[in-house]
Amino acid sequence: MKIILVVGARPNFMKIAPLLRAIEKHKASHQSPVTIHHLLVHTGQHYDYEMSQVFFQDLNLPKPDIYLGVGSGTHAEQTAKVMIEFEKVLLKEKPDLVIVVGDVNSTLAAALAAVKLHIPVAHVEAGLRSYDRTMPEEINRLLTDHISDYLFTTSKYDDENLKKEGIPPERIFCVGNTMVDSLLYNKPLAQKSDILEKLGLITNRQSPITPYALLTLHRPSNVDSEKPLKKILEAIHEVAKKIKVVFPAHPRTQKRLREFNIDLQSPITNYQLLITNPLGYLDFLNLMMHARFVITDSGGIQVETTVLNIPCLTMLNSPIWAITHKQGTNTLVGSDCQKLVKEACKILDSSPVTSHQSPVTNHQSPSLWDGKAAERIVEIITHKK
Ligand code: UD1
Asked: What are the tens digits of pLDDT across the range 14-25?
């Protein structure tokens, strides 16, 4: 069985790494009648060291077998470029299955190119919905799900979304969350990161950690226009009066800050904001593990904070990870900046701010978020005719 796995952008790498490990394990076991040959294709949607290569190092990913080098562009340009280049790969390699993950432009483009050549597609992280079609990721999710043959979901909520849309139940497999597989596998390594020292949040391993909140922002709705971005930064300013804020800024956001002449480095009274370039997987995981709370508009961070039991305030109007609100540590604040400040204060008031070297992790994660999702996926694709 020949399988092509596709990655393109930052949030794909941690979802594919456990699958590659599970495939290698399957190959080594020699117990299955099915022999897997696999190729890793990187579309090149993300290409900077901080957005791509560092994840290959941190996650111990093999060098991609094929690099498409599509780079940046408008949505149509990026999607089309991946389709054109990936179709050539498919025609040459003739795989039996293409595996795509998540909801970035590369996910949809690769799935579309494959399905038009009648090559079966497996979508990992199927069934997530924000029901907000202004988000490019929602369009990517919807379309990828509807053309996929295997829909691997992370929870029963995702299964219900798919069934409501008329997707045949025999295509849906609730397997758990490969992002959580990566997190649980890499936590011990992340503990060893020296990022707290590097950012001056600790002087040595024995000293107390300066309490901090961790911030990420990159959604077009939050950062692409001047007014909403400034409003959010004013609210962050209020939070930073009470606790240090560490902000690894996405390239999209850095670009907008320059365009709008917003200088976050300028000294503002009590403004304890530490802005950095995007960080690698292990450094960022370490920062999440020790944060007092996280403010984000990312999808994946909502999952990771729930598993780590760290409070998360999400600046998105439509939730995609319903389970992290129902069973996790996630609070949706949307674009309501007053609510953001209020919720941040609530967390800070709930217990005194102390430095905490070891985060609480003995709480209950959602069912099947146990580190074994990728193994279940490999089991299913090698056993189904
Ligand atoms: C993409 C995904 C989003 C995901 C996010 C995580 C889509 C539609 N969006 O958004 O779902 O949450 O990645 O990072 O696929 N850039 C660089 N260096 C890079 C990559 C990008 O400078 O390595 C710049 C690009 O030139 C572009 C901007 O950042 O102007 C945005 O990149 P793009 O791939 O369009 O989307 P993201 O905002 O990263």
From this structure: 999 999 999 999
